[in-house]
């Protein structure tokens, strides 16, 4: 990033079930403590960026406007997660997620005989059917967003959820904040907030988690698909999305990862 000018626009992009709640808590608190403006960026709305002041911008689907992504004074922290774990986490969460923040789950749909996404999901006979439905629905959109991202731009700070959830000494996150262009005192502040909001840190005890975090997070562990993804779903996933796993760096081959399954089903 040596050819880029000093950043003043700090963007944080995640995808559904890739650590969004965690990153939102961290960077909103950081912006507040720094006295820096913060706001969510929506694809359908455009608001002028201050001409000189620093600002934090968030997109929880990583759909920032192209002109914003191309700015030399912008840095973008982007977080992805193993799509197989996203599928599992999404299906579990969507069965009980509240309206706030997840409106799409609660809108009656003609193609579902007037039921909402959540109602239809819960009416299905078992987890196999629920995972198949999830794979065709929200998961397909989330994966398409991850695949559409430009991972080569010099102002991107790429991060994987699997690395963050294992970053118990905060070394990786400290590095990411430095790459964003924050000062050392700001980095130290960000690391403190990161740890306090981590499942291995300040939220290690379930009783210390606010209700929304408790509902949103089951375990947060990486690689859950190895023991929890039923083989029929895994085989269908490999056929449909195996190449996507390779593209994103989560598998070396579209189907060989199936040998790592240890789920009973």
TrEMBL record:
Gene3D superfamilies: P-loop containing nucleotide triphosphate hydrolases (3.40.50.300). One of its GO terms (molecular function) is transferase activity. InterPro entries: P-loop_NTPase (IPR027417). Keywords: Transferase. This is Sulfotransferase domain-containing protein. The lineage of its organism: Bacteria, Pseudomonadati, Pseudomonadota, Alphaproteobacteria, Rhodobacterales.
